[in-house]
Each structure stands twice: as structure tokens, then as C-alpha cells.
Write a sequence for this structure.
């Protein structure tokens, strides 16, 4: 029988736990800070890294320190005015625009998909099972990641036994855990059947070729074409995406990440006149501010770009 700690650990998000643990290690071992900390300790820690770490990273470090103190039963020093004022000063002196992954637009998605489809045909013709499987996996991963706006963690967590395909209609993906699922009740996502760039067709093609009926959907493949029984690590998703983009001749492939798939879909949906509420429900955003970070602002002068501005001005008659 599992003990209490087993359930307490299961309730925590693994990535958050790891990030917080790394932040505490950095404070203690890199900066040589003492715990429990005083507001002066935390303020000096922030000041030490204000020029080298991003505001987001500093915020994460503060959250980790706050969590440690609360769990250990100590007063939270990060709520002190000294810490808050220090952080405000860092924002003023070291403003930084939040970096965002480049949105993957339809043209790029088409180019990558065409390259992968051709690569699959060539590998099949050459009897190259390893590359045949690898390209099928990558095609399924990219198309599903785009049309569902999945994060890399969600792509890695996807289990074949939780995927139901309705031929000619859609596929349902049940995720027991996801970032937006605060209560761990699980979330079901639908992916559409499409005439082209179809995530359902690509999923069936990959899982059928790899004989995957149970367990992780996306897995590593060795040089002999053996499919691993375990799922891909989250850190392998971005290299897979960039590798396919580079092979397809996409410029600046390193500027794309799995967030590019999410942003790309959100902007495509907005371009198809989906309202914000529908986009949020489909992708799984709970917060409007989070959703707006992924949507590019509409250019109010887009319709005038191909017009001759002089032709639009009224003529002034000479007197």
C-alpha cells in the first residue's frame, strides 16, 4: 500500500518541483546564502544577479525561496517591502522585453510537412526502417503539436491507450496531467481530421508503423529501427522540431521551439476569425493574459500595404 508521501509527491508538478529545487541549490551553493533567509539576504541575492539573470528567472528564484520558507514553517522574507522594492528597482534599471518563440506559420508548416512526407517515401524505397519510423514520428509530433497547441510536456506524456480515433471525424487525446489542470482531474483534447496536414492521419501512420498500442506515443528510435519502450524526454522535442525544419530548408530554425507550434496555431485560429474565448477553450488557456502573449497584434494598416498612397489623396485643383 502506498504511503501518504507517495500521494503528496504525485500531486506536485515535476517540472515545478525540479525548478524550485534548482533555485534553492543556486541560492545556497552558488551564492552561499543561508536558510532561513532574512529580507536583507534575499534583496542582496537579487541585486547580485540583477545584471545577469532575466526578470523571469529572478521571479522563479523568489517563488522558490517563498515556497521553502512556507513549507518549513518560517516567515516568508520575499514579501517584505525591501525585497519588493529591490525587485521594482531591478525592473526599472534592467528592463527587458520578454522573449517569445517565433510563431510557426502555415507556409513553414507546409514546407516541413512536405519534406517529411518525401523523406518517408525515400526511406521506404531504400528499406531504411530507422529513418522511415523517425520521419513518421516527427511528422505526427509536429502536426499534432500544431493543431492541438500542445506543450512539449504534453506531447511526451501522451499515452496510446488514452487516444481514441474516430475515422473520418476526429481523435480524442486524454491527458491525466497537464499544466492548466490544477486539480489533476485530467483533460480531453480533440484533434480534427483534415484534407491536408492531417494530425489524425499522421498519428495513425506513425503508431501503425511502430506497432504502438499502449504506452508513450512518441519514443526514441535507435539506428537499427528499434522503438524504445519509454517516451521521449521533454528536452528532445525542440531538437527534433529544429532538425526537421533545418532539413526542410527553413531559415533561422533555431528561433523556433514547441511554443512556436502553439503560437502558430493561435494566430492561425485568430486569422480564421475564432473569438478569443473559443481559442482559449480549444488550446486550454485559463487566463486571458496568458492567451494574449501568444497572439500577434493585428496590423491596422495591413490592407493599405499594396495601395499607392498618393492615389488615395484627393487632388487639389489649381486656381
Amino acid at each position: 500500500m502506498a504511503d501518504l508521501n507517495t500521494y503528496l509527491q504525485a500531486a506536485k508538478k515535476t517540472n515545478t518541483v525540479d525548478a524550485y529545487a534548482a533555485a534553492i541549490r543556486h541560492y545556497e551553493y552558488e551564492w552561499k546564502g543561508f536558510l532561513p533567509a532574512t529580507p536583507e539576504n534575499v534583496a542582496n541575492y537579487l541585486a547580485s544577479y540583477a545584471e545577469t539573470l532575466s526578470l523571469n528567472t529572478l521571479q522563479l528564484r523568489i517563488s522558490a525561496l517563498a515556497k521553502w520558507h512556507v513549507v518549513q514553517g518560517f516567515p516568508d522574507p520575499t514579501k517584505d517591502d525591501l525585497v519588493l522594492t529591490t525587485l521594482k528597482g531591478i525592473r526599472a534599471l534592467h528592463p527587458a522585453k520578454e522573449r517569445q518563440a517565433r510563431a510557426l506559420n502555415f507556409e513553414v508548416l507546409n514546407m516541413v510537412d512536405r519534406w517529411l512526407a518525401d523523406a518517408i517515401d525515400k526511406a521506404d524505397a531504400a528499406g531504411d526502417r530507422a529513418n522511415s519510423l523517425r520521419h513518421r514520428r516527427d511528422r505526427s509530433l509536429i502536426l499534432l503539436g500544431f493543431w492541438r497547441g500542445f506543450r512539449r510536456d504534453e506531447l511526451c506524456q501522451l499515452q496510446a491507450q488514452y487516444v481514441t480515433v474516430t475515422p473520418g471525424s476526429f481523435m480524442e487525446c486524454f491527458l491525466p496531467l497537464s499544466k492548466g489542470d490544477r486539480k489533476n482531474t485530467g483533460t480531453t483534447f480533440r484533434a480534427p481530421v483534415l484534407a491536408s496536414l492531417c494530425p489524425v492521419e499522421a498519428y495513425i501512420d506513425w503508431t501503425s508503423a511502430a506497432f504502438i498500442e499502449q504506452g508513450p506515443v512518441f519514443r526514441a528510435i535507435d539506428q537499427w529501427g528499434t522503438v524504445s519502450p519509454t517516451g521521449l524526454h521533454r528536452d528532445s522535442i525542440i531538437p527534433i522540431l529544429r532538425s526537421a525544419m533545418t532539413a526542410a530548408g527553413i531559415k533561422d530554425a533555431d528561433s523556433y521551439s514547441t511554443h512556436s507550434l502553439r503560437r502558430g496555431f493561435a494566430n492561425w485560429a485568430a486569422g480564421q476569425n475564432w473569438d478569443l474565448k473559443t481559442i482559449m477553450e480549444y488550446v486550454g488557456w485559463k487566463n486571458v493574459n496568458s492567451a494574449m502573449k501568444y497572439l500577434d497584434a493585428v496590423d491596422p494598416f495591413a490592407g493599405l500595404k499594396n495601395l499607392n498612397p498618393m492615389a488615395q489623396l484627393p487632388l487639389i485643383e489649381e486656381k
About this structure: The radius of gyration is 24 Å.
